[in-house]
Amino acid sequence: MNWRGMIGFTGAIAFAGHAPAHAENILLSNDDGLTSNVVALYQALTAAGHDVIVSIPCANQSGMGTAFAFRARMGQLSKPCRNLAGREGDPAAGPVTRPELERDYFYVNGTPVMATLYGLDVLSVSRWGRAPDLVLSGPNEGQNVGPIVLNSGTVSNAQYAALRGVSAIAISAGMDTADDDGLANPKSRAVAALATRLVDHLKGKARGGSLLPQGIALNVNFPNDLAAPRWRSSRIGTYNSYIVRFVHNAQEGDAGDPHITVAMNQTPPTAQQAQDEAIVYRKDIAVSTMQAGYDAGDTSADRWLERVLSGL
User: Fold this and answer.
1) Which of 2, 120, 180, 307 is 20 to 30 A from 92 in CA distance terms?
2) Which of 162, 192, 232 shows the shortest CA–CA distance to 47?
């Protein structure tokens, strides 16, 4: 059976029950650092009975993708982490020092993938003696839809975990879920409740097995309006919500040093792009499958390559 049909994403949010069949061991990471979103999701998951470790980058690392520093000595923190996850002079990786978040929260003075690896290689082994059952990355402050997923630390965390053989889901929400003052944005709690419902629904459908098929990860994007979204299967597709351009000096009236600009795409989608996540997320919860890594995962592609290479 097609696993999309088995899970049944499309339709109103009406998953049965919130209590999982049994607790999952979950590693929660992101690319934004200590945020209202990650705190809310931790609280929702633990309230549902799951065992959760949080491993996040010290600073906001949006757009860093799969980057990490090979063999670099990270040293002590030269300045505080975002929202005082760590303080100046603290170790490069360790427990969050913000008093109310000391339990289960850890930071890394590095990129998103480095924080995820810290969770997989150190924290999970120490806590559970093995890899987690699930890696959740996010919820990101801002949706990750279309080609920009290649730059996303949120998505890269899920990709890395999937390539390690761990079920993984990247989660993103609106920019208005941020709250650096109190880490308690109401929209963060709404997103967290829905994300936890998805985890428990997947768990129920898995019937004791892996939450996701081997080599498959999910990219989940919540709309800005959370009043009554539906869960809808989508695809990463070709529609690009964000126009990313390199600007050199005063090119096209933009003064300053060379830099990257990001603007929203105002071009309407084609009929063929209607199921692209960059369109679906505008009203509903877009759930897209991702192949782990760059393997085409398609026997027709393999046959094409064999024909092309024949006689080379």
Assistant:
1) 180
2) 192
Answer whether residue 230 is part of any domain: yes
- Residue from 236, 231, 205, 232 nearest 219 by CA: 236
**In sequence order, which residues have a C-beta less than 8 Å from that of residue 232 and are 6 or more positions away?**
9, 10, 280, 284, 285, 286, 287
Q: Domain range holding 11? A: 3-238+268-309
Q: Report the run of H or E that residue 11 belongs to, with start and end.
A: strand 11-12
Confidence at residue 18, expressed as pLDDT on a 0 to 100 scale? 46
The total number of structural domains in the chain stands at 1
Query: CATH code at 218?
Result: 3.40.1210.10
Check if the beta carbon of residue 141 is closer than 8 Å to that of residue 178: yes
| Ranges of the chain whose pLDDT falls below 50 | 1-20
| Both tokens assigned to 16 | 């049965």
- Whether 261 is covered by a domain: the verdict is no
**Site of tokens 């997947």:** 202
- Whole-angstrom Cα distance, residue 178 to residue 188? 8
Question: Is the N-terminal amide bond of 112 cis, ω within 30° of 0?
Answer: no
CB–CB of 86/107 below 8 Å?
Answer: yes
**What does the pLDDT read at residue 254?**
58
